[in-house]
């Protein structure tokens, strides 16, 4: 019941938050005396040409009218037209979404599958050599700049050892697009070569993206497990002679994970931020790269569209986290 | 299939557990601190043995040593043996201790039943987990994680049977609930059931009634005693409360600074103590006669008058819409006379602390009047109330947390003067020093932080802080709870000295009836938000009128008298304090 | 380590072997590997990477200190007031900060920095605008929980006024979390600033900003491996330094809870 209400509350806030987000980005990008049209039209454009372009993209109207027009457009799924690609931004974003999703999903998978058990072990064997080594990894994971790590990986694995592709998502055209996830599409197509090729391209970006997320998950899991280990119910379970493997991997882990789950939102924040730079380095044709291209071309509408989509995605993730938390914590 | 021993048989048996010359230390920053010092301790089969001592004496460490659950990183067992039926537990590998000793031969009842349940699993699933590993049907050598359906069915039956024996209604329903969905008393009953389920030879109960109200305590003690005696199970029962020890134990061992200083039969113990520490403990018990304290003045009329006071807390649903009221205080009228000590007693949740805080204006009142020294203070604006608060003061239940942890004691003592007076710094400091001397604290304490002094000293500081303003009425909220009996006695002495010196009137809020009996002139009994009885202390204790007062009084352990667990009968269901606006809409 | 960094940043003109290389070109010495003359080699313009890195430290420190300083100055009072008073203003303030927090910081910073144009000032502005809600949220939550503490209630019961309670009791008691958050926030800010630089949104060329330097180095890989290595390690060490400092402060600052050896 409480969970349901929480979710409904969150849903009710979903729209105002998005609108607020739009207003903020819109205001920032429009009150600044920069002229994207002039920039796009080029140095040789005549005043008439610029005015015409301005009228075409609606830049000639007063600010609040522009904002309202934009908001109305968004409700109809229209994020405007990119001045650079000349295509509707919603189409651009949609076509690039699967690439980013595939990468993010793999990184989440890797960071949880590796991070949670390592966090548990670090807590159980706290202050041993193993714990100290893991702590060094954790601290580095949070301190390393992901674009630099990406370059190092490229330098080592792709250029020196030549065991992974340098960049891109796949060689050639890839499998027929059904879901947009190359790994899944190639399996559907029964195309083993595409599958291994796509997988090989995924390795470095996934590793780069997952590293800081894994460090975060490990850190929270370790702290959560330590809290649980020092709790009275673990003392009781020990006093009653429960097998220690049951205490740790069933009771302690369950309780520690509730804390970790609440941090998944944070982890996604790290990942989304990571995709921008990681995709830029690996030339991965996803949303992040799109955003970087938009930046380089001063494509305001595209940047706003991207911000909006990531914001919405992020809010939905937090919504899901709330639901999961409500389900696994009986005290709600 | 319980082992029922004839009475004669018990006496000739060898000890079940023999602890010899046990020494345990803890690693601290300052090196090793010895917690147990050459401890010898025996318990016979089917014997209930009290392990009594004040906080920090080592009783919990002894209990945990026997179970083998001392913290691995910090505890060091330097010498000694723990013989259980001639096996030295210290030499048994941890794995087989966990598998075949803990939870099987010896079980455990913890102090805090709430935090000892895992909050994320149902009670039933936690009990089934215990039975999966520790059911009497399962062989101790079996290390597999199989759990056959037939055994599961039998174990379930066993659990439900035992839940009935610990007098829990609706056993099936309780198993489906989560720990936070049952009351404190019920949780402790569940813990008792879990301790009995594996059919152990011995149970270690670590302060199992400390967190409970007296009337519940009486029932729990009765349950533990009856169920273990009829099964012939030995019990090591640690407690700091001599009354509790008297109620339940056959034998008593007294611990002081890591040593056992006296072993004796519980009857002899209370009539004929041998060790000087034991004598001191017994003497500092607030026992016997009703308050001999005179009122400091003759009747001068009321200093505080409470008329029809109510404090209701709004119960909101998840949409923040009010669906009902929790009537924490409901239509209470009370008069406090100048110079007296008025006790307010009741069990947790009865509203006695809320009453104090509402009078202080910490909680705004819902309805009624509060008249203090002739003026109405219940409906004042914060700025007007600030002035009146000088003469009316309140001390917190936990004085440690009511002092800013980042402020030195001296600064905290100056704060009230900074707020209310225009005195120069030198004058303020002089006043603080006078008060500090009055509460018997050295001047050096001014430079310490709250966490650097003991609980008793924190209470003195809390008192000194408000006395700097020369109040006329002080509300003392549970001023002796959590203190060891010996410290308690000196604090009470201090209260009565200060009362004479500063001409104070006290409202003394407490759940401890024996302290109230000794200390207060008049007593008001609160029960679920209402004052059900007010009377002179002596009259109230001799001739209680209200059925709740009678019930409450009959639950207090009375050392030397008839044991409460043999006479006490619990009352029926309490009145409902919650009122919903729309009946039937109480989701 | 952090102290070292600050000294390096201040003393960069003295310490750098080729202080003029920030702006000067030496085409003849392009892309030389590490040597005695050039510890970390030279870049595409033939400038000494070591010297440029020392000057880069100045930029990084300036950005981080000012951006975080502004965020703290905005966020802490907002959080404190919103936490102390329960009314619609405090709700509204928290909602606004929620909106900022709804998007990963770098995304918003990218959007802002992009529209403003690439310069140090704009990076600072972008980071301040996106980071203040962290402090507002933190202080808000800490204030709310401090108000439930008995010592705050006791002070109010003694008759203390709101401002006194906020400044004398609440703020000092939540200061350790603010300081810890600020220290760790420095690390995060440096990473974000470097990422902005890497994406071309930081100070423009020929600025020796670390993120930009790494971006420049990419076209010369794998041959000029030293080009990217040095600034990357610099970022890593500085951020790690701040994170460790934050963890250390967390343990030291609180007089009540000295952490036990178990953690």
Task: Explain how this protein is built.
- The complex is a heterotrimer of chains A (about 325), B (about 575) and C (about 260).
- With about 325 residues, chain A is mostly helical.
- Chain A has a domain at about 90-170 and about 205-330: MetI-like fold.
- Chain A contains 14 helices and no strands.
- Chain A has helices spanning about 1-30, 35-40, 45-55, 65-75, 90-125, 130-145, 145-160, 180-190, 190-230, 230-240, 245-260, 265-280, 285-295, 300-330.
- The mean pLDDT of chain A is about 80.
- In chain B, helix 14 packs parallel to helix 16.
- In chain B, the strands form 4 sheets. A 6-stranded mixed β-sheet of chain B has the order 6-7-8-3-9-10, sandwiched between helices. A 6-stranded mixed β-sheet of chain B has the order 16-17-18-13-19-20, with helices on both faces.
- In chain B, strand 14 (about 365-370) and strand 15 (about 375) form a beta hairpin.
- Chain B is an alpha/beta fold and about 575 residues long.
- Chain C has one domain (about 40-260): MetI-like (MetI-like fold), CATH 1.10.3720.
- Chain C has 10 helices and no strands.
- Classes of the chains: A mainly alpha (about 325), B alpha/beta (about 575), C mainly alpha (about 260).
- At the A-B interface, helix 1, helix 10 and helix 11 of A face helix 3 and helix 4 of B.
Reading off the top of the CATH hierarchy, the class of chain C is best stated as: Mainly Alpha
Helix content of chain A: over 70%
Overall geometry of chain C comes to elongated
Structural class of chain A: mainly alpha
Order of helices and strands of chain C: HHHHHHHHHH
Cα gyration radius of chain A (Å): 24 Å
Uncertain ranges of chain A: none
Shape of chain A: globular
Q: Evaluate the radius of gyration of chain C.
A: 22 Å
Multimerization status: heterotrimer
List the total number of helices of chain A: 14
The end-to-end span of chain A amounts to 8 Å
Count of DSSP E strands of chain A?
A: 0
Show unreliable segments of chain C.
255-263
Mean pLDDT of chain C: 78
Largest interface, counted by CB within 8 Å of the partner chain's CB: A-C, 52 and 50 residues
Q: Architecture of the domain at 89-171 and 203-328 in chain A in CATH? A: Orthogonal Bundle
